[in-house]
């Protein structure tokens, strides 16, 4: 290219650079088109600063400590800010495109070593790059502002929901007040609008399912669902009953399996029927997310209600009273028969209304109305069931009939359910709707978990007993396969049954702690304490949910430990052939370790970190060094006694000249029962550090009854020997093997000493046996004119002194 051509090209580029931005855009613009607003860098910076200032002001208003800010106004302000950001972005985007077009016209800068471009072109390129960088930064800042506004909008939504929970947790109108029922007859305009918008989503689903081309399929699916839920359920129950009676052994397993089958058939048929109905209305329609969420929650609610009805029919079993699992009188079971189905049906209706309120996001009065209806339904049905059952039991007692025997745990559960029902009714009457809702939902969930746990526990025990019973085929196969005896089968059944019940108990405890549905305990306590100043409590690291979880875990854990200890002591360990002493040692050791682990678990649930307990450990070390060393020494000695077992419960020991039977080995001291039925408390450290005579440590059940008698020198020792042996042989407590024996112990000036020894069945009867033998031996000695030697008295008589009276002196 010639120099003239290069010069002309540079002139053209300079002319293009000095054109207005709108005319320099690629392809040009229509003269009649409106011109985009061109913002200067100062205007852009000022607008961005205004947007940031508005966001900061909204944040400050939302976090006001008085909590009286109108969140709706802040929501509108955020919407306006979002609109301003969109306008700014829309204004900056064309300018950025124009600058990029101008840069494209200029082209890339010349490579090094080539002819340099004109100075004006270089300055223009640098200016365009600077302006483009500024616009890029402004667009990026606008995008960040949009993200911040979206995040702030989410925080406002959470704050609105939190305030809604606070409003719901506070006292509202009573159910006796007409204002409480007003939203049902005259809903607010906002609720009407939201229900109308939601109805606009539901109506197309019904219209598509009922259109001429799909009507037949919808009707067939609905009819199939109805038949399956009614006739199909009955046929399936009869099939389960036939299978249980035909193939299961004639044990209690039939009852528990039939009860489980009844509950499962109700749930399974309901699940299939609900799925058929869902297919009938959604096969031609894609539900929106809100409607799909409502349908999903309704399906869960239907499964819950089906489980309630199924468990009620399975446990009451009014058609076959002999198959009933719980010990209920027939009259009581018949009286309570309709209540599970009534509760399930009413809970389905009221729960659907509450789920609808949650989906539509209704106002506080309408939400309280839904919660109050659910609580009122549960309270009325459960209260009516309790009253009717109590009335029937009273009628049975008045008629002279004995109602069912009730265990202590069953009585406590009945009292707790009654108390919860009364408190819920009182909360509804005084206006604490959310408290009543929480109690009623937890009450329903507690009943579901308790009935399921009872049913599965009975099934687990019956399965283990039937599977390992030697009189049935399964037990005989196990005996032949493993070569074990009947006793080992019984032990295996007990162990597996205990493991299964323990696992079920842990699962039930976890289910009760986590909650089934409705407001959780943590949400309720957090809502109430937030109103009462919960942030201050949180600043002190006092978390209500942690405290509640720790208390529940501690309560359930103590009850679980005691239940397992009773099971070990009464069922498992005796069937393993362990002696009472070993059983007591193992159960005590299990309790001590269990309580330590339970305390650690409670501390962890409270949020205690072990690295923060260094000062506590230091304080304890100082306390142990000064005042707690004896307690720690006795505690460690108690662990040694339980593990090494130099003495155990049931042993007969002698320590410090006192002899008695060990009754209990505690953490600090051991209880020894003496012969006079009194109890001596001995610190455990003495049993470790002192000499202790353990009469029964060698597991020998025999005792020794030994007597030493001294006879005069002129006594025939052989005659006395025969007499003593006859007396021992005639005594019923003296054992024949080993045979009694007589030993010539000593020949002294004052007589001969014979020792006679015999064995008895237990060391504890040695004292009584010696007493009986002494009575009998003295009687026989008198009959044979044989006397025992007595201390000799020597009389020394001195000759009288002349002139004095004789004086006698006795010396012994």
UniProtKB/TrEMBL annotation:
Residues annotated as domain DUF3772: 139-201
Leader peptide range in chain numbering: 1-24
Record's protein name: Mechanosensitive ion channel family protein
Domain Mechanosensitive ion channel MscS C-terminal: 706-787
Taxonomic superkingdom: Bacteria
Coiled-coil residues: 135-162
Keywords (A to Z) from UniProt: Cell membrane, Coiled coil, Membrane, Signal, Transmembrane, Transmembrane helix
UniProt entry tagged with the keyword 4Fe-4S: no
Record-annotated Mechanosensitive ion channel MscS domain positions: 631-696
Transmembrane stretches, start-end: 217-236, 257-278, 298-316, 328-348, 368-387, 408-432, 438-456, 495-517, 584-607, 613-632
Similarity section: Belongs to the MscS (TC 1.A.23) family.
Compartments, as annotated in UniProt: Cell membrane
Recorded topology in the membrane: Multi-pass membrane protein
Pfam families reported for this sequence: DUF3772, MS_channel_2nd, MS_channel_3rd
InterPro entries reported in the protein's UniProt record: DUF3772, LSM_dom_sf, MS_channel_C, MscS-like_channel, MscS_beta-dom_sf, MscS_channel_2nd, MscS_channel_C_sf, MscS_channel_TM-2
């Amino acid at each position: 290219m010639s120099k003239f051509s290069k010069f002309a090209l540079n002139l053209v580029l300079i002319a293009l650079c000095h054109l207005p931005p709108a005319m320099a855009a690629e392809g040009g613009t229509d003269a009649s088109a409106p011109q985009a607003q061109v913002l200067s860098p100062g205007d852009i910076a000022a607008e961005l600063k205004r947007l940031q200032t508005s966001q900061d002001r909204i944040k400050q208003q939302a976090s006001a400590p008085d909590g009286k800010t109108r969140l709706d106004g802040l929501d509108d302000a955020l919407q306006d800010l979002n609109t301003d950001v969109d306008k700014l972005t829309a204004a900056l985007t064309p300018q950025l495109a124009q600058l990029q077009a101008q840069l494209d016209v200029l082209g890339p800068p010349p490579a090094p070593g080539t002819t340099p471009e004109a100075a004006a072109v270089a300055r223009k390129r640098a200016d365009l790059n600077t302006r483009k960088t500024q616009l890029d930064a402004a667009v990026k800042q606008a995008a960040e502002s949009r993200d911040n506004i979206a995040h702030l909008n989410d925080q406002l939504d959470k704050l609105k929901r939190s305030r809604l929970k606070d409003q719901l947790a506070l006292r509202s109108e009573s159910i006796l007040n007409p204002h409480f029922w007003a939203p049902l007859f005259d809903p607010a305009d906002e609720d009407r609008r939201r229900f109308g918008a939601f109805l606009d989503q539901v109506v197309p689903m019904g219209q598509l399912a009922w259109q001429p081309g799909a009507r037949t399929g919808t009707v067939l699916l609905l009819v199939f669902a109805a038949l399956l839920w009614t006739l199909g359920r009955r046929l399936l129950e009869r099939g389960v009953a036939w299978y249980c009676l035909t193939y299961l052994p004639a044990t209690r397993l039939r009852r528990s399996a039939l009860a489980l089958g009844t509950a499962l058939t109700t749930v399974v048929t309901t699940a299939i029927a609900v799925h058929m109905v869902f297919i009938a209305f959604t096969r031609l329609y894609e539900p929106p997310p809100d409607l799909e969420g409502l349908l999903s929650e309704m399906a869960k609610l239907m499964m819950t209600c089906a489980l309630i009805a199924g468990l009620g029919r399975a446990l009451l079993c009014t058609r076959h009273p002999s198959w009933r699992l719980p010990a209920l009188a027939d009259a009581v079971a018949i009286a309570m028969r309709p209540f599970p189905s009534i509760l399930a049906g009413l809970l389905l209706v009221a729960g659907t209304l509450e789920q609808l309120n949650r989906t539509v996001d209704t106002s506080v009065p309408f939400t309280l109305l839904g919660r109050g209806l659910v609580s009122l339904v549960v309270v009325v049905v459960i209260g009516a069931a309790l009253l009717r059952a109590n009335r029937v039991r009273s009628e049975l007692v008045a008629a002279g009939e004995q109602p069912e025997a009730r265990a202590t745990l069953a009585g406590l559960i009945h009292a707790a359910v009654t108390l919860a029902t009364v408190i819920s009714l009182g909360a509804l009457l005084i206006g604490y709707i959310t408290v009543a809702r929480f109690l009623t939902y937890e009450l329903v969930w507690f009943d579901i978990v308790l009935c399921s746990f009872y049913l599965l526990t009975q099934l687990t025990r019956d399965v283990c007993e039937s599977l390992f019973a030697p009189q049935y085929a399964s037990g005989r196969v196990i005996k032949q396969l493993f070569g074990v005896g009947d006793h080992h089968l019984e032990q295996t059944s007990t162990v597996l049954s205990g493991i299964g019940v323990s696992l079920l108990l842990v699962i039930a405890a976890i289910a009760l702690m986590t909650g089934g549905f409705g407001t959780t305990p943590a949400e309720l306590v957090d809502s109430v304490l937030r109103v009462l100043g919960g942030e201050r409590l949180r600043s002190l690291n006092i978390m209500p949910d942690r405290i509640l979880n720790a208390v529940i875990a501690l309560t359930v854990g103590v009850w679980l430990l005691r239940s397992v200890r009773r099971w070990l002591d009464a069922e498992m360990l005796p069937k393993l052939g362990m002696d009472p002493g070993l059983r007591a040692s193992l159960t005590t050791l299990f309790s001590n370790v269990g309580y330590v682990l339970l305390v650690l678990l409670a501390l962890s649930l409270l949020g205690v970190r072990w690295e923060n307990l260094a000062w506590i450990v230091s304080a304890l070390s100082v306390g142990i060094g000064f005042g707690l060393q004896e307690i720690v020494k006795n505690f460690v000695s108690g662990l040694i006694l339980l593990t090494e077992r130099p003495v155990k419960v049931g042993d007969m020991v002698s320590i410090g000249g006192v002899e008695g039977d060990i009754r209990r080995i505690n953490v600090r001291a051991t209880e020894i029962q003496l012969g006079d039925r009194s109890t001596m408390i001995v610190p455990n450290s003495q049993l470790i550090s002192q000499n202790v005579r353990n009469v029964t440590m060698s597991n020998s059940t025999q005792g020794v009854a030994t007597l030493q008698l001294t006879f005069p020198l002129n006594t025939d020792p052989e005659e006395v020997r025969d007499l003593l042996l006859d007396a021992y042989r005639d005594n019923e407590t003296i054992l024949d093997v080993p045979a009694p024996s007589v030993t010539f112990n000593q020949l002294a000036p004052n007589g001969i000493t014979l020792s006679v020894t015999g064995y008895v069945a237990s060391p504890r009867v040695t004292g009584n046996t010696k007493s009986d033998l002494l009575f009998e031996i003295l009687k026989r000695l008198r009959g044979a004119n044989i006397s025992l030697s007595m201390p000799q008295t020597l009389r020394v008589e001195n000759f009288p002194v002349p002139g004095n009276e004789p004086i006698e002196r006795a010396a012994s």
